[in-house]
Design goal:
CATH topology of the largest domain: Quinone Oxidoreductase, Chain A, domain 1
Number of helices: 11
Shape: globular
Distance between the termini: 24 Å
CATH superfamily of the largest domain: Medium-chain alcohol dehydrogenases, catalytic domain
Oligomer: single chain
Bound molecules: NADP nicotinamide-adenine-dinucleotide phosphate
Order of helices and strands: HEEEHEEEEHHEHEHEHEHEHEHEHE
Mean pLDDT: 92
Radius of gyration: 21 Å
Low-confidence stretches: 1-9, 19-32
Helix content: 25-40%
CATH architecture of the largest domain: Alpha-Beta Complex
Number of strands: 15
Number of domains: 2
Strand content: 15-25%
Length: 367
Amino acid sequence: MKRRIAGEIDRYLAVARDKNIPRLQTAPTLRLQGTVTVKIVQIFQPGGPEALVISNVPEPTPGPGQVRVAARAIGVGRPDVLMRNGTYKWMPPLPATPGGEMAGVIDAVGEGVAPGLVGRRVLVSARELVQRGGCYAEAICVPADAPFELPASISFEAALSLPNFLMADALLNRCNPGVRARRVLLTGAAGGVASAVIQLARLQGSEVIGVVSSAQKAAFATAMGATHVIDRLRDAIPERVMALTGGEGVDLALDHIGAGILVDCLHALAPFGMAVSYNIVGGPPQPEIFGELRKLVGRSLALRCFSIHSFDHDRATRREATERLIGLMAAGRIAPPAATRMPLDAVRDAHRILDAGETMGKIILTP
Ligand SMILES: NC(=O)c1ccc[n+]([C@@H]2O[C@H](COP(=O)([O-])OP(=O)(O)OC[C@H]3O[C@@H](n4cnc5c(N)ncnc54)[C@H](OP(=O)(O)O)[C@@H]3O)[C@@H](O)[C@H]2O)c1
């Protein structure tokens, strides 16, 4: 599977070369003699992948109460695209550095921080920082209590999928509290968040019906543990779900595509089921969603719009859940999905893959 994904990337890069898609430009930077510089990705003007510019900046120095983390692996996710095109609701000021997570080693500490932290292997999640983004960088300074320490058994690359597991945990356990879904329907089932949802749901004893758009993605979702897979370009989702569940439907449907697919999810629910919309990459639901809920009133369905930002002011819950997931990964009970690795310099190509909806598993940039 890994080899197949690598082949896809190679094919993609070859097409980009043939079509003369401009490669990454490096911004003009100030080079002071003797100054150590690091690469960071910056957005000066939101837009397409070409809005991502590599800059060489002086290596950051940790301030009081901070540590510096030298990146070994950097995660790429869809929220980075929203930041890149300027539609992110929690947009940091420009020039902005995208990136929701990096894993690396603490290599310097600021005033008031125990020097013994140097050398620790950690995960930095931007959810723990005052503003989102910042992780597309060879080094970052963060408050000393922000990173999560990684046990030796969790590789830097594996750690990058932990924020997706946190998202999966919230989708499965916080959206419909107290209700353990027997069956979960999941769209975009080969994506990064979805790969985490599949594993956690299976661990909790739920069946997972994954929805994908190709045979290759179907194979990927099955390998991640999906119980059944529906190809949405070939089959009607509600009819297939009803056929697979003996006409009962699913208890929970998790969707980030929207448009007609969110409406299809409603129609696949069992009585008292809930659909959770956690993005609408394909556009607003069509037809009008409340009208559809009314049509299905005999099933008493619920619809929730979810954002992980609901936990921005709940540090204790975020950290408890992340530590629990680190424990599950260290024990081998959850595992990162296959990764597509690209150098930091190829960040624009990584975003082209995201834009094309071709992601399978996690995209990782290596500094
Ligand atoms: N609400 C929140 O708090 C929150 C937090 C983090 C992430 N998210 C959202 O979670 C979703 C999954 O994130 P991710 O990083 O796992 O994404 P990803 O890996 O890029 O997964 C994308 C998958 O979505 C499907 N897709 C369908 N229509 C698409 C379109 N128009 N553009 C792109 N992809 C499309 C594709 O699968 P098929 O082709 O098989 O359908 C693709 O495999 C994203 O929408 C992201 O913004 C939400």
